# Entry
Amino acid sequence: MQVNETLIRDVVAQVLAEVGPAPVVTEVGPAPVVAATSHIGSNGVFSDVDKAVAAAREAYEQLCHCSMEDRLRIIDHVRRISIDQCVELGTMEMEETQIGRLDHKIEKLKTLGEKTPGVEFMRSEVFSGDRGLAVIEHAPFGVIGAITPVTHSLPTITGNAVSMIAAGNTLVVNPHPSGKRVATEGVRRFNRAIHADLGIDNLICVIEEPTLESADAIFSHRDIALICVTGGPAVGRAALNSGKRAIVAGPGNPPVVVDETADLDRAARAIIDGAAYDNNLLCIGEKEVFVVQSVFDQMMEAMSRAGAMRLNEQQIEKLTSAAMVQVGEGADRHDVAGKELLGQDAAKLAAAAGTSAPDGTDLLYGETPDTHPFVTVEQMMPFLPFVRCPDVDQAIAWAKEYEHGFRHTSIIHSNNVRNMTRMGRSLETTIFVKNGPSMAGLGLGGEGYLSFSIAGPTGEGVTTPMTFTRERRCSLIDDLCILGR
Ligand code: NAD
# Structure
């Protein structure tokens, strides 16, 4: 929808009538300057990149006048809406994207709302010595351009918004076209609540009809200070070619190694929990398993005991022809996951394999060679290929090969610290989980903290508010070092 001036005036009048004058938001320092701009009342929803960036820039200038307590209050609205409205918004996301699982769509919104790092992650450093004091503070960049994936459309926006605003930035989001409606509705609700409480609109802006052209326009906009993309290889390349500083949360193909010292039943439960989550849409989710020969058959039995359903060779081949498609020409021709079965339930995959899965089956699995497309491709389906390996050295070597150098996530089930160490050193992944499901590496059942933008290629790791800051140094010469002389 093209927002015209008359419509804006009407909306502004309506919103002002509803919310009344902007409240004073802080007792210390000045209240945010609420400029009467043409963008107020848009609630962050724009059809045009220039207008979205201008509105986000105005919002940034207002945010600069806010205290940390105000930032906390802003973020609390994003958290509250993600948590309280997770059923409605999660259902909306499921209906729009048609991939993943409804229970997990709902849970992801709640989890991101509850656990995304906020202002508590902000910190400063101090150098104190003979020549005085230097304080290093972490300042915002300004307006950040964010690209979000279809696999977690609104959850990624929730996480990005909390961390980026905690650091004092505002953002303009180009969501995946197949998740644009829930992205837009979520952003509208966030802004409406923030505006009603603090009098600032458009801290989070979204392009309601996102395209590759609107992504490019964000990448090249002079008022976009930083880019953060979450997605596959193409968007990562595009961001890095933009000439701007980019934080790239790129693709993965997380391998699992199981050695002869592993607790196989525990490993099986963990592998099912991780790989079946949201039908294996998570970038950290277990995608292929390398098991040493001496425990391979026992591991396959443990998977059945834990509730996964085993496919035989013919069923796997039938599933593969339905699930994978070939793209590219000549030497570039390769398999990719087809849209038909991506993120679909195990029951649907079983039907494609020519069989049926008992009610409640979350994951299918079976034995394949290492070169099988389900091993080589980031497949995002609840079927897990298991590869028989002569020994742990070969298992680690294959894990490294099929992780494709993304350095994203890897997992080992073992009680041999040497094997853990060798795998960690060899794969060099951003997240390395031992003896748990992949999500434990994000603090969900393990230690640490959560983000759905895990920046492997550019090195920032699991993003936090500090990721979205630039350093500023404030030096006082010869004074306020109160020790000595
Ligand atoms: P995708 O790469 O198809 O799309 C991601 C986003 O990039 C979308 O908004 C899309 O419109 C945009 N896009 C794609 N090509 C572009 C280009 N050339 N220029 C500008 N924008 C472009 O990925 P998807 O299917 O939405 O999501 C799944 C992928 O994202 C998987 O590869 C997964 O591993 C990855 N992912 C990574 C993380 C992480 O934290 N590292 C998190 C979630 C998903």
Summary: The pocket of nicotinamide-adenine-dinucleotide is lined by residues 147-151, 175-176, 212, 215, 230-232, 234-235, 238, 249-252, 283, 378, 452-454 (CB under 6 Å). The two ends are 68 Å apart (CA to CA). Confidence is low (pLDDT under 50) at residues 1-36. The chain is about 40% helix and 20% strand.
